[in-house]
Amino acid sequence: MTQNQNLIRQQNLNRLETFMFEKGTAIKAEMAKETGLSVVTINALVKQLVEANILLEGEAVQQPLGRPALNYAFNYDLQHDLLLSIQEEKTADDRKLILFGQIVNLKGTVKYEAKRPFNQVDLNELLTHVQHFLKQVENLAQIGLSLPGKIYQGVVVSSWGDLFDGWNIEAALATLTDIPVRIQNDAHLMTIGYSRLHHLSLDNTVVGIFYPENSMPGISIFSQGTLVEGRHNLAGEAKYLPHLIDAQPPADEQAMTESVLEILAIYNAVIAPGAFVVRAGPLSRLPIENSLLPNQINIPAIYFVEDFQASVTMGLRWLVMQESPWKMIL
């Protein structure tokens, strides 16, 4: 088979895999109709995908005319990923960290989940928690970790309360397992996850603002389906903005509103995004009419993240599927 024929076959295979990933189940006639491929090509590709365990043979389905046809199902359990999120959990009188973990299949179906207290913030405790999850499923393919911090060349350089600064998490996890590990900032993952969940256009630039109560904000820039980061991966550290670098976290909702509006005005002037994705303490809306935004040329859409965990989880799925043929389907 020539190189050109190989390329065409791989393109056809990717087209069929993508269709089945989205559809879930189909008979060969449906596959041919929806992909535009010939029945002969579909027969060959289905045989290859069944042998690779990507498609599973189901029961025969009686057709209106002719003989019954086999139904095929995409095997979402072909791969399981461990999605971990270190995040703050606020109680009435305290701030503490937890590690929330889920093991999901390719469809995102949760096979196992647990929330574990992260009381002693050190690498050994993190490894203990990860070991717990590694014992739950045998065929884990990848680990994704959401971190309240930024990583440069494997080392955390800026983090929640500076507690993780200097950590080389990937190297530490390598002492436990050879499963590939991907680590990313929580503001980035929230922004990407929300954008994917709500089908925001990849042609636009989206700026995310994650501003936890009693803490300082992180910023994410997601453009053309790609994260935009600066030197040392520090683009988005809003705590270094002039009005925040020497400031304390907002004391009340009014102070947080004013701070968020100032951040919006700065990034709207500099980036001119199509949309902002905002998670800021208890805020669910902003009095835009009292801000600088109406005086600026760019008029962005502003979305508020109601379900932080759902957005981070989707962001983590995007993260671990970057090398997957199905990454753009999420």
From TrEMBL:
UniProt xrefs under InterPro entries: ATPase_NBD, ROK, WH-like_DNA-bd_sf, WH_DNA-bd_sf
CDD domains: ASKHA_ATPase_ROK
Sorted UniProt keywords: Carbohydrate metabolism, Xylose metabolism
Pfam family, one: ROK
Domain of life from the UniProt record: Bacteria
PANTHER family in the record: BIFUNCTIONAL UDP-N-ACETYLGLUCOSAMINE 2-EPIMERASE_N-ACETYLMANNOSAMINE KINASE (PTHR18964:SF149), ROK (REPRESSOR, ORF, KINASE) FAMILY (PTHR18964)
Its job: Transcriptional repressor of xylose-utilizing enzymes.
Family per similarity comment: Belongs to the ROK (NagC/XylR) family.
Name of the protein in its database record: ROK family protein
Naturally occurring in which organism (per UniProt): Fundicoccus culcitae
